[in-house]
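Input/output pair, single chain:
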Amino acid sequence: MKLFVFTVVCAFLHVSYQIPRSHWTLLPNILVVEVDGTLGQQPLSCIELPEELMRIGNQSQGIFWKKNGKEEAQRGNSYLVRLEESLGGGNYTCHSKDGSLLNHTVVLISEDETKRRKILVKNDKEDYLKCSAQNYNGEFHCSWAWHPSRVGKVAFIKARRVSDNKSIQCSLDSGSQLWMCSSDHSNFSCTVDDSVRRISCLDKQHCPYAEESQPIHITVYVKTKQFLVENYSKHFYLSEIVKPDKVRIVKINSSVIEWSYPRSWSSPYSYFPLTFQIAQLRGECRRCNNPCTDSKAATTTMVQSPNICQFQVWHKAKAVCVRAKDAICDSQWSEWSHLSLRGSKKNRRHNKEEA
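Output:
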């Protein structure tokens, strides 16, 4: 009977402390462990090469471990990370008997999708990543918003053309914090701006004059101070996310305005034409956050021009707004540019600054 009870207890412990469902290497010395909420263990090795382990022999018994700088009770070359729900992540270091650092592993926890608490929050379009491009030169930006209670930082970036999935190789230049993803058909470089919560990427092999045959697939891995990691992906063609910068408007005389293409837009303009929308306002909305969207337009006109464009405004218009979008693709409009036609010195100074 005692033997039976002992067998049941052992079986229970075996089930309770299982090797996790999956684990993989994100970067050298960074291990991602997928958990489903049950108890588990993840083995770590201090010295992995057999010949090196044989060389130190009995000295391996003097190896001790630290988790986040605090010494642990476990000794020896092997260490078992205890996993319970989303706990277990951390910076694990192993040291020789004299305290010298031998190796280190950062363990990040990836929770089961059904139990996961999102690190990022969705934007107004119900998406986690918002991507845009100023032109067709191959550069684009993606931004996000942290959850108020789970602010983190970028752990890794993967950018590729969809057809490159098998041959893609990504790496991180720790000196410049530059992510590189290369394959036979694309060469992406990405940098992170933590202050504005966005990444900037460039496909160095992109040709702006050729049709995109494969969409871009971007994946951003983010981690928290609690060593939780999540990934968020988005795929798109540049033509779907291109958003011109604001146009510059100047007043020629009392009835004519003039604007030009944004300096950042792709050239020649005849090959990359823009469509412009002009909104003429009956009056100024002094309390509006954005008079171009909050005020009622007296009339709206669409104009397509290969370069600088002039427009005769309605004689009763108090202000005019202009925005632009790609004339060929159904992409995003630029932000409105606002020009007050009749106003105070303050308004005229504001118009001059916008121009």
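The CA atoms of residues 240 and 331 lie 5 Å apart. The chain has a mean pLDDT of 83.
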